[in-house]
Q: What sequence folds into this?
């Protein structure tokens, strides 16, 4: 016990004395976490509107109203443009899409409100790399077009003449039965009366509106708590760089095993387990200190809060720290030359953290990938940390991730122990 | 103190140590002398319990080391051939750590630290990190760490490689003091001068086998030639100038290369005047004269047919 303690203290001394390495161990995850949090944070995304170009070749009252409608939408940044340049603009990434309103758009759009004749063709040019925004644009376009066209039908002069034409057409259509013809003519007549009297004008703008108001609420920790992209990105980068530290711990042991120091340690009257246990524990302590330090900075600078259970957060941190120590030990046990081993270990770590959801959250993975990545301990660490931070779940939710991490630590530790080359001639 | 009985160790098909036996008593320094690859480090590793011998056995104070935590290991101090120190720690911190591994703590540890640091002359540098030490200082600390728990048996694997003469002398003085204190020391080296100066008995080994074991004096008397008379000539001469000289009763060997005649003699007092008289009789005029005492180098040469340095 005394020996483990002495070796553990020595490892901690060596790590925390190296100011530059220590700064790197803290600074790297904080810098990258801040950057990724900035990219993925929901709050900051609202500010960026979708840039859309509008080419109005119609210049009718209706097309102008549509332009005003689209232009007033919070989600869009509408700029008038020319047909000749829009493709180039999209290619250069200056706009996500361009909408072309052809000549006669206003007239035929109104005409086709109640019946299906030859519809006008709107042309939408989109940047294929920004499909999500284009989809959103399609929805907004439908909404605004319906609003201005129905407003014209219920309150505009071209709407009125369209209604009269439609009524005459219904009169002359031999394919409609008399009851239906009467109903249609009544409908056109009533709408025309509404249009002429301007009754709808008294209740604000005429025409149809979305028949609901939407109140969105993000479901996170508690009512009123917002999704904090920083919470996830700090957990992700913390996990990544702490595993890197774990690799270095393993490398230290690998180098030690090949050095004369190993002979000195092995001639001392201490159990062979002392050396390995001390290394796991020292890596675990360092890992836990780093994680707590990283989240302390995240809290002070980026407002990341442990919305869930704080003991749960500590439990997951401790379990992940233990896993880090065992991971390093496995590397030391299986590694050959330090150079080749380090490269391989870093590659394995990057794959593990990528699939664990450290770079982009696992909830954006396709469902099969979400299921598959559960075989990675990093996934459990990140889900666990997410649960304790922005998801705001209780202590109960920390048990499964912690158990999985400790299980992984045990398996890795046992394999490392069995494979560790204790003897000189092995 | 230490009994090594016919130990063997092979790496693959190469026998690194092949049936080596030796004994070491308290208050004695035993030299283990051999060229690179002779099997010295492998022998040391087996004695220290780091390597299990393929055959034979090692006994310390009459018994084998059993298990990692055998208290018998406390009797043993190892100075590895390569530096075995934590470079990022200070000398004092290194000693504290290794002291703890031997169960030392508190006042005992403090006293032991002062004792070993002073004995290797590093007390005033004890708070500096080892990385800032010179090669010789590291060597001295490497020795100090092994002395910390006051072992009865000290095994040193080439402890003076890359050490300046001053540091070497300091190390030797420490080792001689330990011998005087009744410790048993096994001193591994490929420097004959070190073995000559320091060791009470010397084991010469090559290719894993023991070639000879004796005191320095004993080894030298085994040589056919105890002394060599060297005579330098300026004038152009060939070996034929000395025809007939080698048949003289007192001359046991004779070579002539690059103007230097080397004559092996048994008795310095009687034989030197005789040989010089013979040379003068032939009208040969020498420019320089010297006598060489036979050394371990010659012993090694005689035993293996190779020079130790070339081996
Ligand atoms: N771990 C090992 N694996 C394979 N061969 C080894 C190993 N250790 C030593 N040997 C071989 O055993 C032989 C003896 O080596 P050893 O290190 O004991 O020599 P040495 O006398 O200490 O030499 P030096 O003066 O160079 O330190 C050498 O031929 C060496 O190549
Ligand atoms: Mg050696």
A:
């Amino acid at each position: 016990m005394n020996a483990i303690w002495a070796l553990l203290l020595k490892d901690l001394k060596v790590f925390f004395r190296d100011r530059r390495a220590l700064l790197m161990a803290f600074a790297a995850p904080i810098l990258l976490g801040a950057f990724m949090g900035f990219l993925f944070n929901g709050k900051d995304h609202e500010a960026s509107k979708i840039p859309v170009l509008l080419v109005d070749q119609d210049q009718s009252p209706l097309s102008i109203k549509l332009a005003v409608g689209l232009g007033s939408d919070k989600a869009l940044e509408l700029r008038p443009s020319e047909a000749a340049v829009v493709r180039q603009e999209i290619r250069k990434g200056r706009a996500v899409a361009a909408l072309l309103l052809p000549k006669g758009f206003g007239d035929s759009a109104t005409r086709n409100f109640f019946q299906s004749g030859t519809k006008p063709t709107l042309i939408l040019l989109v940047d294929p790399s920004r499909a999500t925004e284009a989809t959103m644009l399609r929805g907004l376009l439908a909404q605004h077009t319906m609003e201005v066209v129905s407003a014209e039908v219920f309150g505009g002069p071209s709407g009125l003449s369209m209604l009269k034409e439609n009524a005459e057409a219904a009169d002359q259509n031999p394919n409609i039965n008399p009851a239906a013809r009467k109903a249609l003519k009544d409908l056109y007549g009533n709408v025309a009366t509404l249009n002429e009297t301007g009754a709808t004008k008294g209740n604000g703008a005429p025409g149809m509106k979305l028949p609901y108001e939407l109140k969105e609420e993000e479901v996170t920790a508690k009512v009123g708590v917002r999704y904090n992209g920083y919470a996830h990105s700090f957990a992700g980068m913390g996990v990544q760089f702490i595993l890197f530290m774990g690799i270095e711990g393993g490398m230290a042991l690998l180098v030690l095993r090949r050095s004369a120091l190993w002979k000195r340690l092995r001639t001392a009257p201490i159990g062979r387990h002392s050396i390995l246990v001390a290394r796991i524990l020292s890596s675990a302590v360092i890992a836990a200190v780093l994680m707590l330090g990283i989240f302390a900075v995240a809290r002070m600078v980026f407002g990341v809060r442990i919305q869930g259970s704080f003991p749960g957060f500590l439990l997951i941190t401790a379990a992940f720290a233990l896993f880090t120590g065992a991971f390093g030990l496995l590397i030391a046990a299986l590694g050959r030359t330090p150079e080749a081993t380090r490269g391989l270990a870093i590659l394995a770590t990057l794959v593990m953290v990528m699939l664990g959801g450290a770079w982009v959250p696992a909830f954006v993975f396709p469902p099969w990938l979400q299921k598959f990545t559960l075989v990675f301990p990093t996934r459990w660490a990140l889900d666990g940390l997410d649960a304790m931070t922005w998801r705001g779940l209780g202590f109960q939710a920390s048990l499964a991730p912690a158990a999985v991490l400790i299980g992984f630590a045990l398996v890795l530790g046992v394999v490392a122990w069995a494979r560790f080359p204790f003897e000189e001639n092995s | 103190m230490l009994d090594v009985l016919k130990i063997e160790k092979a790496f693959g098909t190469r026998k690194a140590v092949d049936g080596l036996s030796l004994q070491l008593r308290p208050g004695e320094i035993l030299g283990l002398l051999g060229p690179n690859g002779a099997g010295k480090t492998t022998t040391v590793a087996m004695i220290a319990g780091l390597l299990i011998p393929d055959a034979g056995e090692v006994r310390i104070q009459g018994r084998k080391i059993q298990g990692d935590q055998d208290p018998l290991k406390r009797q043993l101090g190892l100075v590895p051939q390569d530096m075995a120190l934590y470079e990022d720690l200070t000398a004092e911190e290194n000693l504290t750590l290794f002291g703890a591994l031997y169960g030392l703590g508190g006042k005992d540890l403090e006293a032991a630290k002062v004792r070993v640091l002073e004995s290797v002359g590093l007390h005033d540098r004890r708070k500096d990190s080892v990385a800032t030490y010179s090669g010789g200082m590291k060597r001295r600390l490497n020795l100090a760490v092994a002395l910390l728990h006051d072992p009865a048996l000290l095994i040193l694997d080439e402890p003076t490689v890359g050490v300046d003469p001053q540091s070497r002398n300091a190390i030797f003085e420490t080792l001689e003091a330990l011998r005087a204190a009744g410790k048993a020391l096994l001193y591994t080296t490929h420097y004959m001068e070190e073995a000559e100066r320091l060791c009470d008995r010397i084991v010469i080994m090559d290719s894993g086998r023991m070639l000879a074991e004796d005191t320095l004096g004993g080894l030298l008397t085994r040589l056919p030639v105890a002394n060599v008379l060297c005579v330098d000539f300026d004038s152009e001469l060939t070996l034929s100038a000395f025809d007939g000289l080698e048949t003289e009763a007192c001359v046991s060997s004779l070579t002539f290369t690059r103007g230097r005649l080397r004559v092996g003699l048994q008795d310095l007092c009687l034989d030197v005047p005789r040989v010089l008289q013979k040379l003068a009789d032939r009208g040969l005029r020498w420019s320089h004269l010297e006598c060489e005492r036979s050394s371990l180098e010659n012993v090694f040469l005689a035993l293996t047919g190779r020079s130790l340095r070339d081996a």
